[in-house]
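User: Fold this one for me? It's DUF6114 domain-containing protein.
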Amino acid sequence: MSAESPGQNEHYLTVFRRNFRDWRGTRPFWAGLFVLLSGFPIMYFPYAHLQLGHLTLAMATTAGAGSLIIGVLLVVLGISLWFQRHVRTFAGVASILLGLVSLPVSNFGGFVIGFLLALIGGAMAVAWAPGDPEAASAKQAAAGQDDAPEGVSTEPGDAVDAPNDLSGTSPANGANGRHSAG
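Assistant: Here's what I get for DUF6114 domain-containing protein.
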């Protein structure tokens, strides 16, 4: 290695930040964070005792165990969104349902804070889709290879000049994809 190599002279925090950004970009990070954070107010408020001077307000409800279970499940779903991204649809739908169940069970879903975080995080998890890796698309562009099958041209001028629709269902020929019987 030479003294001018960029990997050797970088600070370890810069390398950590770059690696964390790369890791965060390959999974539904913000959805997992919202779902994880939604579990804490749902778990906490049913067991909270607020002190106002000499007055103690106990928020203990009969559904305290249910609130604890909902909160723990939301925290586990948030962590699973980070480390097992293939369960994102299940975790998103489950967090939305648990957030809705937390409304009647645990003090309006942790005073609506946990409820809203669970709904937003669950929606983000369901909507997240893995992106295309930039390195693979750059390699294909450099090599000039496309994913088009043989015989189909990907030139911009060919799309206008010749129809590429081989199914025979296009508005130009009057077919809409339904078969006529008789």
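One thing worth pointing out: Residues 64-83 form the longest helix (20 residues).
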